[in-house]
Amino acid sequence: MKYIKEPKTAKGRRTIGIDAALVERLRAYRDAMKKEANGHLADADVDTSLLRLPAGCLLFPGWPGPGQDTDYTRLRDGHAISRTFKRHAAKVGFVMKFHNLRASCLTAWLDAGEPVHVVAKRAGHDPMTLLSSYARWTKKTDAKVANVLLAMSEASV
To answer: Whole-prediction pTM value?
Structure first.
């Protein structure tokens, strides 16, 4: 089984802020995971305090392989997630990678006026890498630039 390596440095571990609504959704997911015991759902009236998850349990643990027990401390295989996404996207007629969603999200944040250094931090990159790798031209940003240039030219007359 392939295991994902932990980041080599503290810089490689990303910590980002999330809103209260997402925190509640994640807590609900965690609570649902607590009800799962040995691969099957526990009855609703079972005292879930009797179910103990191991120390270091992850919110989104890796999937067990055939004939293996769930290891709640193992990271998910990012490549497997990407392959699954690509396969499902192709079924509905999209030719894209999971990573394209990341680029679209980062571009949307930049289009919305979020500061480059903030978006770069959330992406785990320095601003130069963000701008060279993820920032994309969009009609919206082109129109913004055109309006700025127009305003500058009108102000100078």
So the answer is: 0.48
